């Protein structure tokens, strides 16, 4: 099958690639899948059967890029103003142990390269040089794509790489697919290899999921299948209502990934493995899981005594965990913003010349503003009333 040239030229990321020649190369994998689904490309994977430095050099010149990153997997990542490109030589791979990262080796054959991949819909290539624009589809990926079927390339696929389970779930809901029987069988194999993968690899998969439009359904399936529990026994619960609440209140950005592990039992895991998290993440999680005097939570100033340095998303997640109504939290956040334009502590210290007296006055002022006892603009009058008694 020959792919329509207009379809290729319609993608801005591919137009300049057509200037490359001299070495037999293909676009492959997810970008071919997305192209055939008429979805815009955000990044492009290129495979060259016999990759050499001149191909990389020409690519850098065409795209005006200055550098690239080389990985242990015979790939080069090039970030340009137009998009991200991964360039690789055709590769084979083998797994020395279940769940471990593979070892790769050059094969000089695009079909062998495609057959080592995860799913049939990701195992297609389009030949861009020579300019045949031929679709290379050794495993029937196009028919599966048309039938909305997600099929693994081989038996034992999830044993080799259990992160493919997370990928399968993402693809299912992103593209509206149904699992082939062979894919369903692979989920049953996860206990043989999933416990072998690192925290970093799980973190990366969850971070990708939380950016997806249908992340709630994806995470719900992860919970219902007990995938995180298979990986680590600490994740021994699943609170779908809390997950639904987090999905409603949090933005779709990678740096929010750890919040979405809370409904699965993150508190248990965090207590045992705090050093797996960045310092900033640890501070947030320590705050979220800290036991509190619930009497403090009935008014904004009490909430402020706990959350004065927390970002808005942390405040909202904290409220969901502690059973504090979101409208109270939103009122608190709104009033906390008023403090930015109010009298500052350092101003009071200079004005009163006494740190302890200034601190007491400032705390009373903050509480009065947060609890609605005074409104912005009434600070000076409030201070005149309280200062003589301090």
Cα-based radius of gyration, to the nearest Å: 27 Å
Average of the residue pLDDT scores: 94
Q: Given the helix and strand composition, which structural class is it?
A: alpha+beta
Helix content: 40-55%
Write a structural description.
The structure is a single chain. The protein has 390 residues and is an alpha+beta fold. It is 46% helix and 11% strand. The chain contains 21 helices and 11 strands. The protein has helices at 5-9, 12-15, 30-36, 53-63, 110-115, 141-146, 157-160, 163-175, 181-187, 199-209, 215-224, 227-231, 240-249, 266-272, 279-289, 300-307, 312-322, 326-338, 345-352, 355-370, 379-386; strands spanning 25-28, 43-48, 69-70, 75-79, 84-89, 91-94, 103-106, 125-129, 135-136, 149-150, 178-179. Strand 6 and strand 7 (103-106) form a beta hairpin. It is elongated, with a radius of gyration of 27 Å.
Question: What is the gist of this entry?
Answer:
Helices cover 46% and strands 11% of the residues. With 390 residues, the chain is α+β, with helices and mostly antiparallel strands. The strands form three sheets. Strands 3-4-5-2-1-8-9 form a seven-stranded mixed beta sheet. A two-stranded antiparallel ribbon has the order 6-7. A two-stranded parallel sheet has the order 10-11.
